[in-house]
Design a protein that fits this description.
The chain is an all-beta fold and about 260 residues long. It is built from no helices and 27 strands. The protein is globular.
Length: about 260
């Protein structure tokens, strides 16, 4: 049992991984711990709570906040790899990635074991100062985890660029995703290469965007998703120009002159 601890103001710039709590064994619980203000500038990974190879463990009631990773490697706040896990009532907020990375993960809760439940968690604010499309970003991520339930979670402010989803189910079968509230995320729920999954009674508000290349980083101007060339009304004499003097995320912005 790991319970009631407060771990704050941890930082490193050395070439090694960072762990707030690492548990390797069967059963038991990780509950009511506070992990706050973790920073790393390293090419290795950062984990808040890592339950490695542990079956039947519960991770409940923990608060994990203000994690900042300025290097390559995974940034995963709660990681559970065992079967029959219970991940519930955790509060995760203000997670920041400051690096142009690729093929890595920035995740609130990732579960790779079967027959597990992810319920009643609050995840708010996963921010990326990164423009790499292949970066995997999600508040809750099922990675090959079969027969799992994701229910009653509240997720907001995940993104905003590219493949940013509140809930992702990747190669996970026979699961259920229900009664979650998802707001202001780059995308809502992604089911990728899974079979017989049930998605029902979720509330999704103000997620996604209808403008391709909205961040201004592409050399082609922004357009509505279905367009292949920029719309120009007859006689409008409008032009697009890209600039590096202002940017919301990344390096560039686009200005429309009419």
């Amino acid at each position: 049992v790991i319970s009631g601890n407060k771990i704050v103001n941890i930082s490193t710039d050395a070439s090694h991984g960072m762990y707030g709590i690492l548990a390797d064994g069967s059963g038991g619980s990780i509950s009511d711990n506070t992990l706050d203000t973790f920073t790393a500038a390293t090419t290795y990974s950062m984990y808040g709570i890592l339950s490695s190879g542990t079956d039947g463990q519960s991770i409940t009631g923990n608060t994990l906040s203000n994690f900042t990773h300025s290097g390559d490697g995974y940034l995963q706040i709660i990681t559970a790899s065992g079967d029959y896990m219970t991940i519930s009532s955790n509060n995760i907020y203000d997670i920041v990635r400051n690096y142009n990375t690729s093929n890595n993960y920035t995740i609130g809760i990732i579960c790779s074991g079967d027959f597990s439940t992810v319920t009643g968690n609050s995840i708010k604010g996963i921010y990326l100062h990164s423009v790499t499309e292949s970066e995997v970003v999600s508040a809750i991520y099922l990675s090959g985890a079969d027969h799992c339930a994701v229910q009653g979670n509240v997720v907001s402010n995940i993104g905003p660029l590219y493949n940013r989803y509140a809930i992702t189910s990747w190669v996970a079968d026979y699961g259920s995703i229900s009664n979650n509230i998802i707001k202001d995320c780059g995308g809502g729920i992604l089911i990728q290469t899974g079979i017989s999954n049930i998605v029902n009674d979720n509330e999704c508000l103000d997620n996604g965007q209808m403008i391709a290349r909205f961040d201004g980083e592409d050399a082609v101007s922004p357009m509505i998703l279905a367009e292949t060339v920029p719309y120009e009304a007859t006689g409008a004499n409008q032009t697009w120009a890209r600039s590096d003097t202002k940017a919301y995320y990344g390096t560039y912005s686009w200005k429309l002159t009419k």
